[in-house]
Amino acid sequence: MRDYPDGAAFSEIASGVLALPLARTKGSVILWFRPETIQTVSWGGNPHDKPMVTGPQGPRLTPRKSFELFSESVKQRAKPWKSVEIEAALRLLVLIMELVVSRSNQLAELNVDLTRSNEELDAFAYVASHDLKEPLRGISKYAHQLLESATSADAETRQRLEGLTRLTVRMDTLLDSLLHFSRVGRATLQFQPVDLNEVLEEALEMVAARRQEVPTEIRLPTVECDRMRVREIFVNLLANAMKYNDKPQRQIEIGWSADDTRGPVIFVRDNGIGIEPRHFDTVFKMFKRLHGRETFGGGSGAGLTIVQKLVEQHHGSVWLESTTGVGSTFHFTLSEPALS
């Protein structure tokens, strides 16, 4: 216990240690412990007694005058590890490493399959959404022509034609969202230092937010990201903050906080209708809306799905906090630490 005095507290079970590293990183080791073995050692004379005499140059050692048998108990020591025990530990380490390598190969194969499946899914979504728009345009055209020529038709016929027209418009909106989502998944990000204050100003102009709804003094950091994609994140979050709000005076707050591990955490907070906790995961699913199709201005239900996809492409995360009737706060990170 010379190098670790606190180890005396558990010397009865761990006076001897055999450690084998599992990886180069610190902390990944296998440990074996051996209990204390008290031994009695006999000496020819007391080894701690050093006979001294005083000479012209000061104290000096002198030969012993007695070699009477001296016994001493050695504590806080374990029996030495045998070579067969060390070899067994090394064999176990080899078996573990073989299992780890085998599992790593399996995971690598699964990742390849998953990547290929995702690429095929993105390609399918792109082709399906793109190719379906052409026949949909034809249906919409004929629906409008029938509606224009049905001047003398009964009210029920006109109502059906108007319903068909609305459905074609909604279908076209859903296909546009699906097409856009597939393009997001296929796009390659262009990372560069970006001042988020400038990106936010562009997003505010795109959603036509009234300045009294958003604080004028906003100081966001500069981060390494794709400017266009982060602007789209802000546009979707701001649009939702404005849309799902039934208050006479809408309020939107944008800010950020520092995080040592995840980098800057950016948030968009509103005083809108809020979201129940049981729907926190649902709102990020494709085409999932918590309200009627025409309620709160309608929409396809793809905005937050696209936000989550864009954030994940930046190796970040997005989450929300919300209270029904009070408002919601959406947080997101872009993984890279702030440059300033």
Question: Please, could you describe this protein's structure?
Answer:
The structure is a single chain. The protein is α+β, with helices and mostly antiparallel strands and 340 residues long. Among the domains are: 73 residues; 143 residues, Histidine kinase-like ATPase, C-terminal domain (Heat Shock Protein 90, 2-Layer Sandwich). 41% of the residues lie in helices and 20% in strands. Strands 9-10-12-11 form a four-stranded antiparallel β-sheet. A two-stranded antiparallel ribbon has the order 1-2. A hairpin with a 7-residue loop joins strand 9 and strand 10. Helix 1 packs antiparallel against helix 2 and helix 2 packs parallel to helix 5. It is elongated, with a radius of gyration of 36 Å.
CATH class descriptor of the domain at 191-333: Alpha Beta
Distance between the termini: 49 Å
> Which structural class do the helices and strands define?
alpha+beta
Widest sheet: strand ordering: 9-10-12-11
Which CATH architecture of the domain at 191-333? 2-Layer Sandwich
User: Remind me, CATH topology of the domain at 191-333?
Assistant: Heat Shock Protein 90
Order of helices and strands: EEEEEEHHEHEHEEHEE
Rg, please? 36 Å
Number of beta-strand segments: 12
The fraction of residues in strands falls at: 15-25%
